[in-house]
Structure formats: structure tokens, C-alpha cells
Amino acid sequence: MEDIGKQISERRKGQGLSQQDLAEMSGVSPRTINSVELGKANPSISVLSKIVRPLGFVVTLTERVTHE
User: Fold this and answer.
1) Which sign does the torsion angle of CA 21, 22, 27, 32 carry?
2) How far is residue 64 from each of residues 11, 18, 31, measured CA to CA in Å?
3) pTM: predicted TM-score of the whole model, two decimal places
4) Quick one: 57 exposed, middle or buried, by C-beta within 10 A (0-12, 13-18, 19+)?
């Protein structure tokens, strides 16, 4: 989550947005934005999608196949 949080923070700052701005745009609390950016939160896919959508990111899922 730290890498994702770092990417979110960098993109947000690059767009001149505060955490409060992103929170208002995404409908997620500023506290959640802060926790995600610091890698301290483990948001659901739904919450993560809400956060990244205003930044122009898209969340995609890939299937990981393991062979035992």
C-alpha cells in the first residue's frame, strides 16, 4: 500500500490539490486520504477507486495464479 499511497500523493500534489480537495472530490474523509497516502490504511477496492478516480487513475484487478 505504501507504493500506491506515494503515487496518489505525488499525483495529488502535481495537480495542485490538497488532501481536503481530494476528499471533497472523492467523497472520502481527509483522514482516510491521509492514511492511504502514508500506507497506513488498507482501503477496499471501492474506496480506493473513489480516491484515485479524480486523479485520473483507474483501479484494475488481475488474477494471480499459483501452482502448487
Assistant:
1) negative
2) 27, 35, 31
3) 0.84
4) middle
Nearest to 52 by CA among 33, 31, 30: 33
DSSP state of 67: -
The single-letter code of the amino acid at 2 is E
Contact present, 56 and 11 (Cβ < 8 Å): yes
Reported as a single tens digit per residue, the pLDDT across 41-64 is 999 999 999 999 999 998 888 888
Which residue has cell 487513475? 57
Contacts of 21 (CB under 8 A, 6+ apart): 12
4-33: b (≥16 Cβ within 10 Å) or e: bbeebbebbeeeebebeebbeebebeeebb
Amino acid letter, residue 57: F
